[in-house]
Fold alcohol dehydrogenase (NADP(+)).
Amino acid sequence: MTATTGTTTVSAYAAPSAKAPLERTTVPRRPVGASDVLIDIKYAGICHSDIHQARDGWGEGIFPMVPGHEIAGVVTEVGPAVTRFAVGDRVGVGCMVDSCRECVNCEAGLEQYCLEGNVGTYNALDRNGEPTYGGYSTHIVVDEAFTVRIPDGLALDVAAPLLCAGITTYSPLAHWNAGPGKKVAVVGLGGLGHMAVKIAHAMGAEVTVLSQSLRKKDDGLKLGADHYYATSDESTFEQLRASFDLIVSTVSAPLPLDKYLGLLRTDGAMVNVGAPEEPVSLNLFSVIAGRKTLAGSGIGGIQETQEMLDFCAEHGLGAEIELIDADRINEAYERVLASDVRYRFVIDASTI
């Protein structure tokens, strides 16, 4: 780190423009304010949403862009008003670093649904109008209110992906009451899907994986799935018709929603946590028949994120990861797009 005029310059990997390869650079970090913590980043997960945003898949981005919202590290400095953390604490930062803190959703612990819009960990503007830079860097300064504690029972490298993949799947599973007596289907066995399987199984639900092929069946069963079906086999949709209380779709490609909604029981819900870049179509009779719900879910609030981390530590649930040096980020992006990772790339920040 290099300090200049109150800010600190840190090493990072950034996309200089949309669709451009990421390259090593430096970015500024603000001074540690009264309520801030300075985090020495140890590991940062690579999320598919990093690729969507670095390549303008979800709309025009802010460049240069330092992706990364699955951050695990250690506190190295705290502001004078910080009460929750101390130097040496193991902490994490997820998909947001601020919100209005005053709207009804923020007051309810649903900062992810802040009515004024939360401030993303990267590809966003903070309350001062300055761009935010994410976890593909050596250090980050974050308000303690948007920092969570990583329990001692979780290694930092396997904990990093929990800050997005973990909470993104835990939140809908908890909200829709996955547990004993409930039949849950997980669509896709990737970075999000493999955590959905682990968490739903730990909650006590009967878990089925719905994947394009049976290529990862052995993995799925080892991760906690009770059943595994290929969606490329049309008989799957007939065989499993009206079988599930809850379907969690983790894929970021458009799905034939009407077919999947046919797999729900009466009053069942299909919740989408993967966000395709393209619009999807729907015949409303697919939800009218059976009083079904088609829903979405976005990450979780700070309190729920801490709850998720504690749950994962209690049940020994870390992500399945492939640890890489930072100079392999661009290669990792291509492999994610090719579904060639089991199941989350994690950057060793010491190599940035």
Notes: The radius of gyration is 20 Å. The chain has eleven helices and 18 strands.
